[in-house]
Design brief:
Number of strands: 11
Number of helices: 13
Radius of gyration: 23 Å
Structural class: alpha/beta
CATH class of the largest domain: Alpha Beta
Strand content: 15-25%
CATH topology of the largest domain: D-Maltodextrin-Binding Protein, domain 2
């Protein structure tokens, strides 16, 4: 009895000096969480991240401070978060570029799935294949078939970006002469197709221009249909092999406790599933596309493999 009592007291004393992981998990979060945005303030990723963070504060009971860390297509911030303490207090709102596009092209100083762990995906802009409203191309199939005999020019937001690599894959699969014209941003690519300087463009912000007839949407690069234009086919629906979904998700440093990750995933998923958040995202012209942490991990892995293969074909 005396030994048992002494052992119990010793254990309690040890717990007081070294709080158990279980107690830390139960107390989490006990202070403010930082959500890093790898882009400047005012963009759609920044705006949506601030909204989901603000709404999740009520569920988690602690402030979520959004911190902008732009630079190097988002890879600087990803590298910093990958090296942060895995205690659940430093997260990142990531997108396709720093998650799998840029890492497929060069060494970025981190391995997305070894050094970070996905919590959930909550959005991802649709990228449309658009042509002028009066274009002779009335379908994606017609554009590809036309490009087998005569070169078709298409604009994107920049060389070796996700849209460029996606259509490079289409060109390889079909033998179509799809000639890439890079621009400094999607807005300039959109202006170029409106002005007739390129035959087509692959851009995310097309809804209003399509609805008023200035552009025609031939299809989307993503693995699901744009609900605003359900008749516009995905690449697979158009008979092609590949699909290139965009992501906007939240990740944490690898090594973060699974119970903390589960608490974060539950809170952010509840927010992303709410009518209030969906309305906010609709007003922002951004879709709500929810994936679990596990599904997001598979999506990143699949896209890393696909983009590395395309980059290799392009000699990168």
């Amino acid at each position: 009895m005396k030994f048992t009592r002494r052992l119990s007291l010793a254990l309690l004393g040890g717990m007081a000096l070294f709080p158990s992981a279980t107690l830390a998990q139960q107390d989490y979060p006990s202070r403010a969480i930082t959500l890093v945005v790898p882009y400047g303030a005012g963009g759609t990723t920044d705006i949506s991240a601030r909204q989901i963070a603000s709404m999740a504060e009520d569920l988690l009971g602690q402030p979520i401070v959004v911190e902008n860390q732009p630079g190097a297509s988002g890879t600087n911030a990803m590298r910093a978060v990958a090296g942060a303490d895995p205690d659940g207090y430093t997260l990142i709102a990531t997108t396709s570029s720093p998650s799998f596009v840029t890492p497929a092209l060069r060494d970025v100083g981190y391995d997305t799935l070894q050094d970070l762990v996905p919590i959930l995906n909550y959005s991802g802009p649709y990228h449309g294949v658009v042509v002028p409203g009066d274009s002779a191309y009335e379908s994606l199939d017609a554009l590809i078939e036309g490009a087998k005999s005569d070169a078709v020019t298409y604009g994107t937001a920049g060389a070796m970006g996700g849209a460029h690599l996606a259509f490079a894959s289409v060109a390889k699969e079909t033998g179509a002469k799809l000639q890439h014209v890079p621009f400094d941003g999607a807005a300039k690519a959109t202006a170029a197709v409106l002005g007739g300087h390129v035959d087509a463009a692959l851009v995310p912000a097309y809804r209003d221009l399509v609805q008023d007839g200035q552009l025609r949407l031939l299809g989307v690069l993503d693995g699901s249909n744009d609900p605003d234009f359900p008749d516009a086919p995905t690449l697979k629906e158009a008979g092609l092999a590949a699909e290139f979904p965009s992501i906007v998700g939240i990740m944490a440093p690898a090594g973060t406790d699974p119970e903390i990750l589960a608490k974060l995933e539950a809170a952010f998923t509840e927010v992303a599933s709410s009518e209030e958040f969906e309305t906010f995202m609709t007003d922002l012209s951004q879709p709500v596309r929810i994936m679990s942490g596990a599904d997001l991990a598979r999506t990143i892995e699949d896209n890393l493999t696909a983009y590395r293969e395309i980059a290799k074909d392009l000699g990168n």
